[in-house]
Amino acid sequence: MRLVLTLDGETVAAEVVEREGHYRVRLGSEWLDVDARLGPARATSLLIAGESWLVDLADEDGDVLVSLDGRTHRVQVEESGRRPARPRAGGGAGQRLVAPMPGRVVAVHVRPGDRVEPGAPLVVLEAMKMENEFRATAGGTVSQVTVTAGQAVNAGDLLVVVTPAAT
């Protein structure tokens, strides 16, 4: 899968190739061997070129927040050749849940029109033989569900949109 990543204003072309549960990742012109394991909640363990990293991943307004060594970085992830379909709104912009990596949808807990509270389960995604439950980050109304149970998804695919509750 070819991607365009933007971090701290710097944009780089990337490519991810899955091989037997491991990944070959190209950032710019450099290829890296990556082993990733999703842990409980949002914690992810990465083994990159023999070095171990523990990162915390979260979705916010369609971007991926990556927390590492006490610092949080906002990464915009777009499929190469596509324009982002997400608005860049201020506070209260709702939640656009996107798949953080390729996987299979195990369960969808919401339908369009459902009201959800913060922490409500939205989707369960199986990736690398682990099930990961994704929850609402804020209360609101489910405005869009783009997946069904059993469906395969790619990293960056839109899963669910939650529109903020009116104040």
What does this 3D model show about the protein?
The structure is a single chain. This protein is mainly beta and 167 residues long. It folds into two domains: 78 residues, 2-Layer Sandwich (Glycoprotein, Type 4 Pilin); 70 residues, RNA polymerase II/Efflux pump adaptor protein, barrel-sandwich hybrid domain (OB fold (Dihydrolipoamide Acetyltransferase, E2P), Beta Barrel). Helix content is 0%, strand content 61%. The chain has no helices and 16 strands. The strands form three sheets. It has an eight-stranded antiparallel beta barrel. A four-stranded antiparallel beta sheet has the order 9-16-14-11, with no helix packed on it. About 6% of the residues have low confidence.
CATH fold-level name of the largest domain: Glycoprotein, Type 4 Pilin
Taking all Cα atoms into account, the compactness measure Rg is 16 Å
Per CATH, the class of the largest domain reads: Alpha Beta
Distance between the termini: 40 Å
How does the helix and strand content classify structurally? Answer: mainly beta
CATH architecture of the largest domain: 2-Layer Sandwich
Count of separate structural domains: 2
Percent of sequence in beta strands: over 45%
As residue ranges, the low-confidence spans are: 82-91
Number of E strands: 16
Give the neighbour order of strands across the main sheet. Answer: 1-2-3-4-5-6-7-8
Q: What's the mean pLDDT score?
A: 80
Question: SSE string, helix = H, strand = E?
Answer: EEEEEEEEEEEEEEEE
Helix content percent band? under 10%
Q: What's the main sheet like? A: 8 strands, antiparallel, barrel
Global shape:
globular
How many helices? The count is 0
